[in-house]
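Ticket #4471: structure export looks truncated?
Reporter: QA, pipeline team
Priority: medium

Steps to reproduce: submit the single chain below to the structure queue and open the exported record.
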Amino acid sequence: MNIYSYLTFTRWLVIAFAVLPLAAAAHVGSPNVFFEGQADPYPVRVIIRPPAVLPGIAQVDVRVGSAGTFEVFLQASLVEAGHATAPAPTRASKVPGENNLFNAPIWLLRNGSYSIAVILEGPQGRGKVFVPLNSAAIRPPVMSPALATTLVVLALSIFVGAVWLAAAAARYSVLEPGAIPARRENRRALIVTVIAPVILVGAIYAGKERWQAMDREFRNNALYKPEPVDVAVRTNGTLRLLQLKMPSGNSGGPGWETLVADHGKLMHLFLIRESDLNEFAHLHPVRRDGATFENVLPLLFGGSYQLYAEITYENGLSQTLMAKVSLAAPAATPAQLAPGTNTFSEVICQSAIAPVQNAAQPFALDADDSWHCSATPATAKASPGKTSPLMGGCNMVFQTKEPLIENRETSLHFAVFSPTGEPVELQPYMGMMGHAVVRRSRGEVFTHLHPLGTISMAAQELLAQREREAASPPDLSAATISSTLTTPSAASSPLPAALQRDMQAARDSVGMEVDDDLLMRGLLAWSAVYGMVSFELFGQYTGVIEHRSAFFDHQLARLAAFLGLD
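Actual output as written to the record:
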């Protein structure tokens, strides 16, 4: 049976659902990423603490659950840049005084979906597991007061020095060495001393405007924030349908047609009533088209609800959508699909690459949709406690004794008991032995947990598939065709005589004998790479190219083909 409960503490709401024979463990949500599972034969627990500012350093802790001597390596790879661009693995250092706990810093350079490969060398050979990580700046860079003061002093020194140099140039640049400046030179120097600060102030102002424009671009497009979603409730006969639509202004991001299934569902949606936290629902809307999801609403009491929806894209990036929605009192009890044969399956999630098509309007609740309602106010609101009554008459007990503290790893243990106090035998829910939601009381923090941690199983499967494809042998027939098509043509336009002399001077300077055609191609490729780097540095791609790493890789491949390189 699927069981939901709510447990309210001083600042956190913990909602546990389905599933634990006696207890389960998960982690309190934060920007950190938790994974607990197998790296082939070795049990591992991985904690990734990403930086708040990018580029920045993420701290990774790996605890190996097996006895023996181990070496641990970490490798961070940006998914959209491709496996070949990944840096060399970083050796993790063993933490003194700890049993098989390793730590290593890894650089994250930009926003996006990363694959963190955890590689172990131990008594049973090599083990490997991929942990998906969404890298995003959560705050702009902050300059310390000491650094700001130092930079201001240096800037004033440079400003005064620039004015002094301009005046000195105006006074002495046209004089013979040792000559004494006359009235004319002194007058010219005075004029330059007045004009130079005006020019410098104008340049500083232009730089400030440019910097502020870049800062607005960063805050609007690069700084992480929950994605809003348009929500409406419509009726079709006695059915109440919750409809989610992609906001009209969200034209720059990927569409919902590129989603993959996580735990067999394209979307996991959570509803929490704001007034008393007594109503909670975990739903699985169906995709109607590339911008619309719909789900039948369960029997929830009317009121204002906070909505959270979790989705995973085919590049491994996970996203949380947020909205508020008001529900009227229900008029009828909706039907629910009967559980399928997967209800008791040991499968954790369906293949992330399995195609999931659009669906017609739903006429019943999904078999895995579950919810909790309580007609009486939560007793934990008046007196925080660790026992919550369930709709079926059972009680869920929160057995963790340690206090919940922000940014500190904590294990959550729950147990469910019958009305007579006997442990209840529970069933797997969507193939896993435990799910939980941790939400801060004001709603600004929300995390969906399960015993494997906070990662998206679909994203992990995508990363594993990417690794398998990268290890596949190359298609030699395709390589032969590419080599034939990209070999430079021997027939090229003859160079003008002046350019031929320049090419000869270039060959002499490097001491290489290269024909004119190939040398011209190399200069053109060099100019193109320099231009792309300059465009990136000065923001010329802003609003034009969003996936710049992929664009850069593609252009380099085209230039390599232009040069005749395989």
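Status: closed, not a bug. The export was complete when the record was re-opened. Leaving a note from the reviewer for reference: DSSP finds eight helices and 26 strands in the chain.
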